[in-house]
Amino acid sequence: MAAQGSSVEAMDQRLQQAQRFKEDGNRWYKEGRFRDAVSRYHRALLQLRGLDPSVPSPLQAFGREQPPVTPEQERALHGTQTDCYNNLAACLLHMEPVNYERVKEYSLKVLERQPENPKALYRAGVAAYHLRDYDQARQYLMAASCSQPRVPAADRVPAHHLSPEGEATLHGDVQLAKSWLPPPDTTRTTWMHPPFLDRLPGHRDTPTDITPG
Fold this sequence. Notes:
Layout: H1 2-30, H2 34-48, H3 71-92, H4 100-113, H5 118-130, H6 134-147, H7 167-180, H8 188-191, H9 194-198
């Protein structure tokens, strides 16, 4: 019993440390220190490596068992993981040159656990668009529009006045991105025209946890 209590306590400590790293990352993001934020989010994920009971650990092949996880700890673990992946995607959209492959990878990790997460859908759509997977971009952006919380018309921010925070920003960007997607019968040549690609928003974004939702 004492050993089990010690394992639960050790798990709590790692979860708390991961949460602190994530909060540090959010602070660096707010200050525009995106590389520092990325480092913190990665450190948070490292704290959680090997703890997820839904992912087999390589150490199990050597007879080492994963530490026991309570339902509450598992929810906290998955929540921190999801937030960090979502926030990593947000950071990468601010770092030139943008690695859209990685933005898409991180966004899909979020969508594995939260299929209707509007920020992850939006970022996946932006990444798919810049990777010239236009059909998928349309699907993600349409899904983001359907999944995002409703924003009163008076609270929607005009595209040229988008702030770096708030759900109104997300709503404005999704609507803007959708308006710039060509109709389904548009020729691929037009879809791939460089000036058109440059008009897609990808940087007016906020990471998870800094603003609600």
